[in-house]
Structure formats: structure tokens, C-alpha cells
Amino acid sequence: MCQSAVKPNGTTDPQNEFGNVLENYKRIIYNVENAKAKYRSADDNVSIMAVTKTVAPEKINFAISQGITLLGENRVQEYLSKKDQYDKTAQVHMIGRLQTNKVKYIINEVAMIQSVDSIKLAKEINRLAVKNDRVMDVLLEINIGDEASKSGVAAEGLDELIYEAAQLENVRIKGLMAIPPVGCGEDMFDKMHSIFLRVKEMAVPGVSMETLSMGMSGDYELAIKHGSNLVRIGTALFGARNYLEG
Ligand SMILES: *Cc1c(COP(=O)(O)O)cnc(C)c1O
Predict the structure, then answer these.
(1) Is 197 domain-assigned?
(2) Is residue 51 part of a domain?
(3) Would the CB of 180 count as within 6 Å of ligand 1?
(4) Per-residue pLDDT of the chain (246 residues; tens, 9 = 90+)
(5) Which of 173, 213, 222, 235 has the greatest number of beta carbons closer than 10 A?
(6) Atom in ligand 1 nearest the alpha carbon of residue 96
(7) Burial, 182: exposed, middle or buried (Cβ in 10 Å; 0-12, 13-18, 19+)?
(8) Is 7 a member of any domain?
(9) Domain containing 42 — which CATH number?
């Protein structure tokens, strides 16, 4: 049903301490603008998030110095070990699977949690947000491809989660997030966009559908075509990940 994935086009120049981050970033901006011009409106805002897993803090800070303002973190442990070295001008969002017992480590560190996929997790975020006297913005993650290996709430379970989580006073639902199966982009993005618009129409009190977070290195232009306004880019910005570092 799905074609094979487009190969992400981030490159690494061994002569350059920071790989080709600047060149890669310029190309991503160009492609995003191009996709907006082609499929959307030039006025539409599409945020580019730099996904930092396995990337050294110096390289992340270089990306920030070139204009990146949003970082995406996958792993709590890795983030905690690196965060003190980050340039604090960029906002940080948690985008990886989050266990309820780890929320306490990030409740005062991140501006948003994009990977909320159960009422249990939402309640723990709320409990700690109350305790820390803050409000946490969240996105609800949908397992749009119904993949056993992936996190996210099933599309059929979304409404129940929305109505329950909307009751939590210190959690604010700001939109939806998805990681569609590789190579399945177009159909899945379209499906996500429909769900996003449907939830927007539901107009649940306290729920604002502002952010549709989808699209990664290999498919962000297609995601933009289908309504994404936050693309999460790792490889195409920083080059191939070296898991030995991570
Ligand atoms: C790793 C990751 C990305 C970025 O993936 P690339 O293909 O390297 O751009 C985006 N979102 C999530 C949730 C990820 O874990």
C-alpha cells in the first residue's frame, strides 16, 4: 500500500565542524516556502522544529545561532544530560514516547508535550502542572497508521481522550501530532488533516486546534500540502544520525 520512503537529503561535510547544518537549513527553508507557495498560502505559518536526538549540543547551538527557534526532544534521559549546554533562546518540545513516571523530570523544562496519547499521561501532566503552578500545552498524538510498534491514541479513541483531557485545568490541548508510517505520507496526512478540521469544528471548550504537527525529513513538503504547520526535521538538518553517539 505504501511506497518506499524518499531518502532524506541532509548531508554531512566532514571538513565542516557542524556538518552542513547551515546549507541544510537554507534548503529546508526554501522547500518549506516552495511547498507553501505551491499548495497553501504564502502567509501561512509553518514552524520548522529541529529534532535533536543523538546530536551534540554544540551542533544544536550552531543551528540555533542560524535561526532555529524550536527543538524537539525524544528521550527524557538524553535531554536531561544535554539541556544545560543548550542555548536557552530556543523553545523545547517533548515529541517522544513519554512514560508517566518521567513527566516530573520535564514538567518545568519544556514548553509543550506533543506526545500525549492517554488520559493517564494527561492526568499526570496535569497533576504536576498544578503542583508546579504552571499550565502545560500539549498535542494529542494519533497512531494514524494503526501500527502496533508506535505510540499514539487510535483515531477511534481520540474524541474520548479529548473530552476527558479537556477537563484538566492545567493542561491545554493545542492540536494534534502524528508519525505516519514511512512512505504512506499522502493518504495519512490527508486523514490527519480531516481529523484536525473535524475536531476544530467540535469546538470543545478549552481545546484549541492551532497546531498540526506532522512531516519529517523525507516527507515534510507533502505534510505541508495537507495542512501541517509544524514540521519536525532531524536528518535533513543535522545529517544521518550516529546512534553510537546517542
Ligand atoms: C526522529 C523524529 C523526527 C525526525 O526524523 P527525521 O526523519 O530524522 O527528520 C520527527 N519526529 C519524531 C517524533 C522523531 O522521533
Answers:
(1) yes
(2) yes
(3) no
(4) 565 555 556 666 666 667 699 999 999 999 999 999 999 988 899 999 999 999 999 999 999 999 999 999 999 999 999 999 999 999 999 999 999 999 999 999 999 999 999 999 999 999 999 999 999 999 999 999 999 889 999 999 999 999 999 999 999 999 999 999 877 768 999 999 999 999 999 999 999 999 999 999 999 999 999 999 999 999 999 998 876 444
(5) 213
(6) 13
(7) middle
(8) no
(9) 3.20.20.10
